[in-house]
Amino acid sequence: MAAIVVRPEHLDLVDSAGAVVTTLSYDAESAEFIDTLSTVLGAEPTPSEHGGSLETPPRTEYDWDGVRVTDDLDAKVPTENGPIYGEIDMNLSVLFTAPTVGDGVAVRTVNGFQPGGDAHALAIELGEPWYGNGYDQVRVETGEPIGEQQPYNEYENAYSVAVNTWEWQGASNTVFAPWNFGVGHV
Predict the structure, then answer these.
(1) Digitized pLDDT (tens) for each residue of the chain, 186 residues in all
(2) CA distance 52 to 80
(3) CA distances for 131 relative to 3, 120, 136, 147, angstroms
(4) Other CB atoms within 10 A of residue 123 CB
(5) Residue 59, helix vs strand vs coil
(6) Whose CA is closest to 94, among 23, 183, 182, 19?
(7) C-alpha distances in angstroms, 152 versus 15, 59, 64, 73, 156?
(8) Burial category of 48 from C-beta neighbours within 10 Å (exposed 0-12, middle 13-18, buried 19 and up)
(9) Torsions phi, psi for 101 (to 5 deg)
(10) Distance, CA of 7 to CA of 25 (rounded, Å)
(11) In Å, how far are 5, 138, 149, 154, 160 from 181, measured between CA atoms?
(12) What is the CB neighbour count within 10 angstroms for residue 127?
């Protein structure tokens, strides 16, 4: 594989000629996803277990240099007040912090943005809001709607690829998917 293209509902695994060899769905079984990504990256990940908290379910994180895959374990987490947060809709999420991973595999979005790139310029290019407070998220690509549009939210209820500007494990301008801007995430 020459490149990983981060999409709203899957990864495109691309060869050196630019052809998509296969896709890797965020709804795939964890073992299949991790095994395939390990083959692409030429290394096994370091797994770590994390308990649930007020806002996050228990999860397993799989880390390679520049890549994190999170499996929410399909858990339902009670809050302090009793209601239960449902599981994240897709089985897995991905976070890329480096523009090249594994043995020279490029990481990019459909418009060519790579982790660590200029997120402010990307926001301007895409007409996305920019606050400059260090906590910006830029919506790069959005998939098909998965539910009703919320009347108070301008964003579709759909999975998206997001570029996050906040420092995450020592990296900023990371690429994250899937993220649903249409359910209050801005």
Answers:
(1) 999 999 999 999 999 999 999 999 999 999 999 999 999 999 999 999 987 777 667 789 999 999 999 997 665 545 555 444 443 468 899 999 999 999 999 999 999 999 999 999 999 999 999 999 888 999 999 999 988 887 778 888 899 999 999 876 667 899 999 998 887 543
(2) 12
(3) 31, 9, 6, 28
(4) 21
(5) strand
(6) 23
(7) 42, 31, 38, 31, 11
(8) exposed
(9) -130, 165
(10) 9
(11) 20, 10, 11, 9, 7
(12) 7
Q: Cβ-count burial of 148 within 10 angstroms (0-12 exposed, 13-18 middle, 19+ buried)?
A: exposed
Token pair 């020592």: residue: 170
Element (H, E) at 108: strand 105-108
Would you state the structure tokens that stand for residue 135, as one six-digit string?
């906590």
Cα four-point dihedral sign 32, 38, 41, 47: positive
pTM: 0.88
